[in-house]
Amino acid sequence: MTRLLEKYNQQVVPHLIEKFGYKNKLSVPKITKVVVNMGVGRATENKKLIEESTKHLTVVAGQKPLITKAKKAIAGFKLRKGQAIGCKVTLRGKRMYEFLDRLISIALPRIRDFRGLSTKSFDGRGNYTIGLTEQIVFPEINIEAVEFVQGMDVTLVITGNSNEQSCELLKLIGMPFKLE
Helix (H) and strand (E) counts for the chain? Predict the structure, then answer.
């Protein structure tokens, strides 16, 4: 069992039951999946960028990403329907907890001028999204081999009913939020 999953089961669940008064363990909010998305807008000009971003996402997430394609043509962006414009990975189970552990303990502290994550990035249903400006914050990626710096979005899908419950869950797991 991963370190973060053990922490969730042994420390986080009892604390959330005590704080919010849940009747049983199954009603406690939990992270169901993590979606890592890289939108490569410059891929319309250079198809090699999609290949490189999928390679980086494979290394970071530990599984092969799905290449996302444009749903409709937009002439202003020189975009055709069906053209590859990004890639995404959906992580669940053990891989999800391992990725979150690496994100919280290694990648986020490596961000330049990092002062914590905002608590305003919840969507109203308890899900949380983090935007990273560069993929090189993950130590798995060799900086010398990177041709272009690409950002990514990390979305945590949580079963909680409210932002407050999800925020408390993430704080107890160890997510570094700003002190407000």
Answer: 5, 5
Q: Supply the pTM of this predicted model.
A: 0.86
Asked if the structure places residue 76 within a domain, the reply is yes
- Contact between residue 62 and residue 96 where contact means Cβ atoms under 8 Å apart: no
What are the b/e assignments for 111-122, b being 16+ CB within 10 Å?
Answer: eeeeeebebebb
Q: pLDDT at position 73, please?
A: 83
pLDDT at 44: 62
Q: Rounded to 5, what percent of the chain is helix, strand, coil?
A: 45, 20, 35
CATH of the domain at 49: 3.30.1440.10
CA pair distance 6, 77, nearest whole angstrom: 46
Q: Which residues of the chain have pLDDT under 50?
A: none
Residues 6+ away with beta carbon under 8 Å from 132? 107, 111, 151, 152, 153, 154
Sign of CA dihedral 119, 122, 128, 131: negative
Give the separation between CA 80 and CA 48, rounded to whole angstroms.
Answer: 17
Quick check: is 45 in a domain? yes
Helix (H, G, I), strand (E, B) or coil at 175: coil
Give domain status of residue 124, yes or no: no
Q: Which domain holds residue 69?
A: 32-111+145-166
> Number of folded domains in the chain?
1
